[in-house]
Amino acid sequence: MSADAGTTRVLLVDDQALVRGGFRMILEVEPDLEVVGEAADGAHGVAEAARLRPDVVLMDVQMPGLDGIAATARVVAAGTGRVVVLTTFDSDEHLFAALRAGASGFLLKNADPDDLVAAVRAVARGHALLAPEVTRRVVERFAAPSGAAFRPELLADLTERERGVLVLLARGLSNAEIAAELFLGEATVKTHVSRVLLKLGVRDRVQAVVLAYESGLVRPGDDGG
User: Fold this and answer.
1) Is residue 13 located within the same domain as residue 81?
2) Is residue 26 included in any domain, yes or no?
3) How far is it, in rounded angstroms, from Cα 17 to Cα 144?
4) What is the pTM of this model?
5) Staple partner for 42: which of 53, 66, 152, 177, CB 3.0–4.6 Å?
């Protein structure tokens, strides 16, 4: 984070001034979030990320010149910010292109303001985040078919409690929701999640969810009911 360790610095990259203004209004009412810059196209966004070194870049997809996917790849490669891709286009093409480019988050522009704020905070803390409506498509693209055999070797290092946490992660629950489900403190859940990621050798929660499906621990359609 910035020199003020409690503040997350955000760069807005979108070719529509009204959209940038709306995002700025949503974010700057939060005491821990600061919009440090804006850019109207991908090339300018890459340059501003290099100049400002924000914690999080909110990146539009379709922009003149360098588009948001290419700009995301450049920002990630340069290490000048973690990127949340925001788009009006709910398509697999944009979703998987953004993930391949190294985006840490993907949200639709019709997301609630609270979801946008939560996404910025989560990504700033090093987490990955996908809009709930696209998580299933990620699983369906990368996970094994529902009839695949259970592969316990992928989960061999996990304790029973950690497997339970992974199942709830795969159902899309937040740390707070997992804590309520398991009657644990949220700090304890955070520790369990960190251990799950470490033991599985995955970078973030999204990869952990995919592995949960690949292993057969969770199957498409499971809802815990």
Assistant:
1) yes
2) yes
3) 42
4) 0.68
5) 66
Report pLDDT digits (tens) over 58-81: 999 999 999 999 999 999 999 999
| Residues 173-193, mean pLDDT to the nearest whole number | 91
Let me know if 71 is exposed, middle or buried by CB neighbors in 10 A (0-12, 13-18, 19+): buried
Q: 97 in a domain, yes or no?
A: yes
Which residues constitute the domain of residue 75? 8-135
The answer to whether the beta carbons of residues 153 and 161 sit under 8 Å apart is: no
Residue 62 lies in a domain: yes
Neighbours of 150 (CB within 10 A): 11
Report phi then psi at 54, rounded to 5.
Answer: -70, 165
**Whether 7 contacts 34, CB under 8 Å:** yes
**Beta carbons of 34 and 26 less than 8 angstroms apart:** no
The Cα 139–Cα 215 span in angstroms is: 12
Looking up residue 200, the CATH number of its domain turns out to be 1.10.10.10
Assess if residue 225 is contained within a domain.
no
Same domain for 89 and 187? no
Could you tell me which of 170, 163, 189, 192 has the C-alpha nearest to residue 178?
189
- Cβ 57 vs Cβ 75: under 8 Å: yes
